Known about the structure:
By secondary structure, chain A is α/β, with parallel strands linked by helices. Chain A has 4 helices and 11 strands; from the N terminus they run ββαβαββαβαβββββ. The model of chain A has no long low-confidence stretch (mean pLDDT about 95). By secondary structure, chain B is α/β, with parallel strands linked by helices. Helices cover about 20% and strands about 30% of the residues of chain B. In chain B, the strands form 2 sheets. Chain B has an 8-stranded mixed beta sheet, with helices on both faces. In chain B, strands 2-9 form a two-stranded antiparallel ribbon. Classes of the chains: A alpha/beta, B alpha/beta. At the A-B interface, strand 8, strand 10 and strand 11 of A face strand 8, strand 10 and strand 11 of B. Strand 10 (about 165-175) of chain A pairs antiparallel with strand 8 of chain B, so a sheet runs across the interface.
Amino acid sequence: xxxxxxxxxxxxxxxxxxxxxxxxxxxxxxxxxxxxxxxxxxxxxxxxxxxxxxxxxxxxxxxxxxxxxxxxxxxxxxxxxxxxxxxxxxxxxxxxxxxxxxxxxxxxxxxxxxxxxxxxxxxxxxxxxxxxxxxxxxxxxxxxxxxxxxxxxxxxxxxxxxxxxxxxxxxxxxxxxxxxxxxxxxxxxxxxxxxxxxx
Amino acid sequence: xxxxxxxxxxxxxxxxxxxxxxxxxxxxxxxxxxxxxxxxxxxxxxxxxxxxxxxxxxxxxxxxxxxxxxxxxxxxxxxxxxxxxxxxxxxxxxxxxxxxxxxxxxxxxxxxxxxxxxxxxxxxxxxxxxxxxxxxxxxxxxxxxxxxxxxxxxxxxxxxxxxxxxxxxxxxxxxxxxxxxxxxxxxxxxxxxxxxxx
Lengths: 199, 198
């Protein structure tokens, strides 16, 4: 069955955007610092490998906020794969391209798994990640941990209950020592341990 | 030249305690999970030495430091390590107001600020590195540009709630460099240098 895997870039202090993120500044003040590693996305090496894996996913789950801040990807995130936008309020206008709106997190996960077929599902956005974590529907996390402290901004892990979610580190890919500091990153992949009773 | 090195065990979601940490529960509710990389032991920090591998390497490095800087909160919660963190090295406890009772053993209270605390510890460490413990003191060091390195024990768990290591910092970027990464069963050891503040 398709795995649902979060792909997010995070500063060591846990932020996925700088402060005051909004439609005019989707990454917040100076949040673009987080994405310097993407300059290596088409190169050989760990960042190119991870980026290639992300684009090999066959469905996308996004939170509504990320979706809107990204200008709805104009209906196509990559290769026209189905995009499931998790939202409380379905917009009145019809969704663009391969987008569909889903209001229930379990329904969203089930639809995305089916749509991904033999591939995996990419998750984007802190809100969607938190919702999937709370619902026990997230299988893996691929975090691009950037060696910087942003100090303030929007946190990836927030609004979670005080219940431990145990993980296993299943892969670490770090940029070589020769990489320039601004483009260094550690790609950490974790598997979420599911309680035996999870459905 | 002595370096100030922060040693902390942190969950992937950034917590160094569970919720409701207090005198009777220094690591908060469920926070013991963060110390699962250590061996069970007592008040003496040396009793917690991991058996082998990268965890033992990092532990031994911490125990080779020549002085300790800690916040009052961490110090009190740890019972002041009965006055001896390791090998009788001096322990500098940063606090706003020293209690009436004298500090136990090799500990002393520092009330005139983080700069003075760091200067005293560097003099006392005689060229060896300095072990820094505690989130609030780490934040003070970061804000003052006094932190040299961080040795983080990144635990593969989301605690959900608790006390965060990185909090109360200004929105100025602090650039780091990953110096060393070692994966051990149940813990990842990440060593960063602090390259620049602001």
